[in-house]
């Protein structure tokens, strides 16, 4: 193909270059977001109570005076990316002399970084962009040439599985960071749970398998105070947790056995595992709900990839997550067909999938 021989080819090539560079530098937007989260930009604007100029923001964040122009450039990108809104207002400075100034305000995405709010997702930004989640990508070429199907990129690069890394006593800070990120994600489900109360009606007991530190179980308990909820997770995760009359914590292993209940909840658990291990978990869930006969059910909250039904941006997010699960844990995000396979392979007779809260789906599975 000639380089500049014909207008169409030339324009196609330069579009391709833009496409390529855009994807090469996607990480800059992610990292700028992480910097804003670490600096507490959203908290500063929230505490101030109104939109702020760059100098006000720099002073509230206690930045070095030499970094005011740096902050301006970060805010320019973050504003372009929808995290802040920029407006021009009459100068509020004393003796402003009728001049104007540019002020930055919060937008719905940056409101999700306000730490005092229950919907804060700062810990997700922290965990997803932590060096332990990113460093391994430098070893992907080596991983592709290894003959170890079950080895995640994480394990190939670091010599230990992500779960082992999390559970090392010396890394308890990382375990806390991970559990806090999971809790933050669960808190986001509050409204969705209220909207799908019917899913839990008629159940006297529920076990939240891989339920972490119990954030979701607590939300369910608030909606259904009479339901007996059990949070089942690895012993080291639930060791110091205290329950209430209708909320208790049990340590154990999902691959061995799961406490009995009318229903089992699995939020963000099956995407951690490949199909074979997911079938094993689902079979143990089936056993756990067997006392309730045909009335028992397994409630899965996870991603369902739907390339034809979802828009491009949503599908990209779901596919990004698929690679996160693959590389960190050898897990996977599934489309309808893939869900159906693991569900039927585990011996269940039917299921239904409903999208809830943005990018996750609620999958009810019946014996
Ligand atoms: C991705 S987290 C999801 C946590 C929680 N369901 C949520 O969405 O916030 C997966 C959970 O599975 C737990 N887990 C991993 N392996 C387990 C095992 N063998 N037995 C019990 N729990 C396990 C982890 O400790 C972790 O809390």
UniProtKB/TrEMBL annotation:
Stated name of the protein: Uncharacterized protein
Domain O-methyltransferase dimerisation: 22-115
Record keywords: Methyltransferase, S-adenosyl-L-methionine, Transferase
Pfam families reported in the protein's UniProt record: Dimerisation, Methyltransf_2
Keyword Transferase found: yes
InterPro entries, alphabetized: COMT-like, COMT_C, COMT_dimerisation, SAM-dependent_MTases_sf, WH-like_DNA-bd_sf, WH_DNA-bd_sf
Domain O-methyltransferase C-terminal: 137-349
Catalytic site positions: 271
Single GO BP term: methylation
Keyword Nucleotide-binding attributed: no
CDD domains: AdoMet_MTases
Entry GO MF terms: isoflavone 4'-O-methyltransferase activity; O-methyltransferase activity; protein dimerization activity
Naturally occurring in which organism (per UniProt): Phaseolus coccineus (Scarlet runner bean)
